Amino acid sequence: MTTSPANPYAQPRVDCHVHIFDPARFPFQPDTAYRPSGQELATAEQLDAVLDAHGVQHAVLVGPNSGYGLDNRCLLDALARGQGRYKGVVVLRNDASLGELQDLQAQGVVGVAFNPALLGVDYYLGIGPLLERLRSLGLWAQVQVQQDQLVALKPMLVDSGARLLFDHCGRPNPAAGVGQAGFQALLGLAETGRACVKLSSLVKSSGQAFPHADMWPFVQALLQAYTPQALVWASDWPFLRAPARVDYGPLLALFDKLVPDAAARQALMWDTPRRLFGWDASSS
Fold it and tell me: What distance in Å separates the CA atoms of residue 78 and residue 63, rounded to the nearest whole number?
């Protein structure tokens, strides 16, 4: 008689960065620079199946610049269909009004995405008033920077008082080491008590094949500076424009290796995201 192995997905999880691309129901916008295709396409039903297979109870849906640009209809539809399973981060105009933000918040939106890594720093130099509106509503400013872009943006972000959520470990240059100016700026923001970082998508920065060992020192530095109470895990599914194959299960296994302490993993993958994004016990 053999004993069945323990369920590797028994621990409850939240995935804090996924996308949906469903052009059959929500056509892509004609002015977007990149339109996902093939295995990059990912419907809400497919996302449900992936999360269910890996024991992931909740996810944060992030509006992509690719395909949809400022069109959030696909994301909002998935929020409604999910009936509380999902929260959303949308892409908006830099002059979005307080009324627009309040309407989106009522639909399950918890933040607005800013993407200097894609659009450049100059595009966002005038977002101070929008950041203040986010602060007034308790919404997140989700920021995707790369290399040293954060240095120029940090004063505005700090002065705004907004809650700050940084994508993909800040997308540092692994060849420049943890001492590079942009990554040090990110580490310094931990002292504000209102900044958090997603441990996600090492492939976007790494110069090495999976498991992207050149990014591990950055993960450890973030763990030390932010602690699991201000860090969350994310997959970045469905792995848009990935340079090589990415699979969900190996990403979970890599996270277990990078964070071997069970209590820290529990915080990163469940307790912290539920607290930060507003899932209570009744919704889980």
Answer: 11
Q: In CATH, what number is assigned to the domain containing residue 189?
A: 3.20.20.140
Per the domain annotation, does 13 fall within a domain? no
3-state secondary structure of 197: strand
Q: Which of 37, 45, 123, 125 is nearest to 77 (CA)?
A: 45
19 domain residue, yes or no: no
In this structure, are residues 136 and 98 in contact, taking their beta carbons and an 8 Å threshold?
yes
Please state the length of the chain.
284
Note whether 201 and 168 are within 8 A (CB).
Answer: yes
pLDDT of 148-207, one tens digit each? 999 999 999 999 999 999 999 999 999 999 999 999 999 999 999 999 999 999 999 999
Contact predicate 229/267, CB 8 Å: yes
Amino acid at 101: L
Structure tokens belonging to residue 13: 């999880």
E strands, the chain, in order? 13-18, 56-62, 86-90, 109-114, 140-143, 163-166, 195-199, 231-233
The count of domains in the chain is: 1
Return d(Cα 258, Cα 253) in angstroms, integer. Answer: 9
